[in-house]
């Protein structure tokens, strides 16, 4: 990216403007200035892709109203500048819709930092979105959570830099946190409430993190009686896709509006079933509904979990379903229950077990290409504002 980001300075006196220009040497190019904030808006609207540095202290109210206006224009980047760095001032700027706050002073080159962060953010935003996989249990106890968590573990084992989050959509009875033996005081509704100021760093710090690096977003507080709205779910999932390489959804087991929204947004649906008649019946029903919903056949992958010689054989299952089974995970209760009870992951604790290799081999099936999109290193923009 070029290092001459166009900047327009608004509301600063000549000495302040000179100081800002000096501090920006080499990182941005000041293409204009307007000391009177009330006259700045047409110019700012006109020059797209520029960064507006708005000096707050002289005409606070008009500057804040410009920030508000600009924050509604997609791609605009108002940065509020002030000689006062009290949390009250930072918060006021943030609430008005500033992308960042920079403290102006002779020694501290905070404006430089703000510009560099914004540039990095723009670069990071060019990254493709992460992949989302919905693990859907054809029947309770078919191993959805086991597969979702260990799929995440396998990705991290193969690509330690990958950012992977498991989202537990069973807000009441979800057990992803228990499976991974992590606790979280930051749940779904916290993310929704704080989304306007969450960035990569803050999100990463806030979510529960397993020792493997795997992160979890769940709703840990059972007494949180808020209802999750469809639009909020979609916003959270889009947000996660921007910040993670892989988003794995667990806790889906019905065709509620929320479940459908989540599945619509997923690249793949991994339908987990066990080799027994009740699971088979349910899996058949699920496949029929997926078809009615218009999901492309390649989107759905059927995973036969707990496969063993004694149960239904593969051909009978495929015959009954009228389609092929995409992935098979063998039955290994002692290994699985051991890792679950210790809050561990198969990839770390039983890397050579057959069941681990089975889960590993699901990656290409779910279009998980470990070599791609694992460099989602982003710097926080508004991080300082909420410290
Ligand atoms: N491949 C496997 N071999 C042996 N046991 C397994 C296997 N996969 C899962 N299990 C066992 O099956 C049980 C249920 O697994 P899990 O909780 O992952 O299923 P689920 O579909 O998420 O269930 P729920 O309906 O409670 O969400 C667990 O006790 C787990 O140990
Ligand atoms: Mg489960």
Furnish the topology, listing elements before pairings.
Elements (H helix, E strand, L loop, with lengths): L4 E6 L3 H10 L4 E7 L6 H6 L4 E5 L4 H12 L5 E6 L4 H10 L3 E4 L6 H16 L5 E7 L6 H15 L5 E5 L7 H4 L8 H7 L5 H7 L1 E2 L5 E3 L12 H14 L2 E7 L4 H8 L3 E6 L3 H16 L7 E8 L6 H8 L5 E4 L2 H10 L3 H4 L4 H7 L1 H4 L22
Parallel strand pairs: 1-2, 1-3, 3-4, 4-5, 6-10, 6-11, 7-9, 7-10, 11-12, 12-13
Antiparallel strand pairs: 8-9
Helix pairs in contact: 10-11
The protein binds adenosine-5'-triphosphate and magnesium ion.
Largest sheet: 8 strands, mixed
CATH class of the largest domain: Alpha Beta
Superfamily (CATH H level) name of the largest domain: P-loop containing nucleotide triphosphate hydrolases
Q: Which band does the percent of strand residues land in?
A: 15-25%
The helix/strand series, from N terminus to C terminus, equals: EHEHEHEHEHEHEHHHEEHEHEHEHEHHHH
Evaluate the radius of gyration: 25 Å
Task: Figure out the total of helices.
Answer: 17
Defining key terms:
387 residues, alpha/beta, Rossmann fold, 2 domains, 8-stranded mixed β-sheet, 5-stranded parallel β-sheet, 13 strands, 41% helix, binds adenosine-5'-triphosphate, binds magnesium ion
């Amino acid at each position: 990216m070029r290092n001459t980001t166009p900047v327009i300075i608004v509301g600063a006196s000549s000495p302040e403007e000179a100081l800002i220009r000096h501090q920006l040497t080499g990182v941005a190019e000041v293409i204009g200035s307007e000391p009177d904030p009330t006259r700045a808006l047409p110019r700012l609207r006109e020059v797209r892709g520029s960064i507006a540095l708005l000096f707050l202290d002289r005409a606070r109210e008009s500057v804040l109203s410009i920030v508000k206006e600009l924050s509604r224009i997609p791609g605009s980047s108002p940065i509020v500048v002030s000689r006062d760095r009290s949390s009250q001032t930072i918060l006021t700027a943030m609430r008005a819709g500033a992308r960042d706050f920079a403290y102006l002073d002779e020694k501290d080159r905070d404006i430089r930092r703000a510009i560099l962060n914004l540039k990095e953010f723009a670069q990071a935003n060019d990254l493709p979105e992460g992949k989302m996989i919905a693990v859907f249990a054809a029947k309770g106890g078919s191993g959805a959570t086991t597969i979702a968590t260990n799929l995440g573990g396998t990705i991290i084992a193969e690509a330690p830099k990958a950012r992977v989050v498991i989202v537990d959509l069973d807000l009441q009875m979800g057990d992803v946190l228990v499976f991974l033996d992590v606790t979280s005081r930051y749940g779904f509704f916290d993310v929704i409430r704080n989304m306007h100021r969450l960035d990569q760093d803050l999100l990463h710090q806030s979510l529960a993190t397993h020792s493997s690096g795997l992160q979890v977003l769940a709703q840990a507080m059972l007494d949180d009686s808020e209802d999750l709205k469809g639009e909020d779910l979609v916003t959270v999932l889009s947000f996660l896709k921007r910040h993670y390489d892989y988003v794995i959804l667990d806790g889906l087991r019905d065709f509620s509006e929320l479940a459908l929204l989540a599945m619509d947004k997923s690249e793949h649906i991994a339908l987990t079933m066990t080799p027994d008649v009740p699971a088979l019946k349910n899996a058949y029903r699920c496949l029929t509904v997926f078809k009615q919903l218009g999901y492309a056949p390649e989107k759905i992958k059927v995973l036969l979990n707990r496969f063993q010689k004694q149960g239904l054989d593969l051909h009978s299952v495929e015959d009954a379903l009228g389609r092929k089974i995409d992935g098979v995970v063998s039955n290994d209760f002692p290994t699985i229950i051991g890792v679950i009870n210790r809050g561990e992951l198969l990839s770390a604790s039983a890397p050579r077990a057959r069941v681990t290799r089975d889960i590993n081999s699901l990656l290409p099936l779910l279009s998980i290409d470990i070599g791609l999109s694992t460099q989602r290193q982003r710097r926080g923009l508004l991080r300082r504002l909420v410290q």
